[in-house]
Amino acid sequence: MKKYIPFLFFTLLIAFYSCDSFLELEPHSQSIAVANTGADSVYFKSASELEAALAGAYGDFKNEYYQLDYYVNGDAQADDAYAGGDNPDNFQIDDYQLDAVNRNVSRDWAYLYSTIGKVNNIINNAEEVTDPDLTPSRKNEIIGEASFIRAFMYFQLVQLWGDVPLQLQEVTSISAEKLPEIYAQIFPARSSTAEVYAQIIADLETALTRVRVTATDKGFATVGAVNAVLAKVYATKEPHDWSKVNQYCDAVISGGYSLLPTFDKLWDNSVENSAESIFEINYTGGPSDGNWGVTIFRGKDWKKFNLPSNDLVAAFDAENDVIRKNASIFFDNVSGLWSDAHWPQTAYPFINKWRNFGGDGAQNYIFIRLADILLLKAEAENELGNTGTAADLVNQIRARVHLNPTSATSQADMRLAIEKERRLELAFEGIRWFDLKRTGRAIEVMNNAKGVGGASLGYHLDENRLFWPIPQAELDKNSNLTQNPGY
Question: Which residue range or ranges hold the SusD-like N-terminal domain (predicted)?
């Protein structure tokens, strides 16, 4: 009976709305604008409308997904943090006990596809805007920026869920005659991971030739940001293309970026949009533009999320990495406030990279920075057989925090050295889980993660838990969707 529900939906839809009516439909598996198909069918009538649409899409980098869940998914799902707090949905993520009705799973799917719907409208309709205030060069930039945003969102989706619906068009009208044509758009099946990556790369290649080279505000798509995401994509998709990773890392490195001399300056809020930053979401603070996400990770008013792990602290200590440990983790006394099995109340850790947690919310988030790309290039060089070059890059990162050069000399040892360096350098930046997945190390590392006193945390991660379940609500309304194995 379930397979007839979509057809019934269409029957009712067509009965209640004529084909020239305006209708907004937003199933969570996509975001579709069904536009007026009368005499005036131009979606955007002016340059200002198109600019506003693009600003709205950029604004989604400040929604709950990017302020909070991005870090839960990348850090609490890995060995850098425990779930912390009191949210059972986060506990499921931390313990690899997700189910298809988990609220984080549902909302993250919805957030990402909502943004995709917004940029689809821009990409598909920008060329029709004839307003003379919109120059051809700016129109090209807008399409490029929207393409970058779409690629960024699909990169999140494919890493979390694997095969996902590839929705690139909006429905422009609904009628019984068009049902065969638009049915698959409103109720899409999952596209293969390979198809999704192909589209991500195509969007990024479109963006690369259109976006601005640089921007003072690093929250906009630039050539450097596009090259950086291309490097990450080629390092993640199967099979990895290390030559492409190297190529795009080199393009970033030659783009005018440089490491800040002092690691802590990345996090003390004295240097925003720095020479090291490649893609950074800017907050001005206050009720209208404050980053409330930082209050989820730091503060003593209630028990916070993403509690730094014993395993990560032990990794910092084993390396004698005092500078990055102190910049990344702050220990405080929470006696009388709450307790936790992982840490004593008198030495309770908080994330220290996002420090404006009690102020006006003017705390930027850095999503991509040069150190990440230098270490990704080291990985590419090592996989291409250039272990000495890889060591030079790793040592460049280590020198900034006054650590001795790496002792790794073989390709196998260098793989582990780079993995460790990325962990210590990029802790709490939403990257660790996806690093472990793309290198095929997630199961081994997580099942051997240690807690208090070096005791096993008892994780039982397997292949079926490397991807999330398709949200049950999406399966219920779209019979073309299938569930991931193990759920």
Answer: 22-234
Alpha-carbon torsion 428, 434, 435, 441, what sign?
positive
Distances (CA, A) of 451 to 243, 311, 454, 472: 38, 6, 5, 33
**Secondary structure E strands in 221-288:** 277-281
What is the arithmetic mean of pLDDT over 226-244?
98
Work out whether strand 329-332 and strand 348-351 pair parallel, antiparallel, or are unpaired: antiparallel
State the pTM of this model. 0.92
End-to-end CA distance of the chain, in Å?
A: 22
Structural domains in the chain?
Answer: 2-204 (1.25.40.390)
Half-sphere exposure for 98 (CA within 13 Å, toward CB): 29
For CA atoms 10, 14, 19, 22, the dihedral sign is negative
Question: Is pLDDT of 406 > 90?
Answer: yes
Residue 4 has pLDDT above 50, yes or no: no
Q: List the beta bridge partners of residue 315.
A: none
Neighbours of 92 (CB within 10 A): 18
Give the number of residues written for the chain. Answer: 487
Instruction: Say how far apart CA 232 and CA 374 lie, in whole Å.
Output: 12
Residue-wise burial string across 59-87, b where 16 or more C-beta atoms lie within 10 A, e elsewhere? ebbbbbbbbbbbbbbbbbbbbbbbbbbeb
260: left (phi over 0), alpha (psi -120 to 50) or beta: beta
Question: What residues are paired with 84 via a beta bridge?
Answer: 305
Which three-class secondary structure state does DSSP give residue 141? helix
CB 155 within 8 A of CB 70: no
Which candidate, 29, 161, 107, places its Cα nearest to that of 474?
Answer: 29
Tell which residue, 120, 137, 156, has the closest CA to residue 229. Answer: 156
User: What DSSP character marks residue 67?
Assistant: I
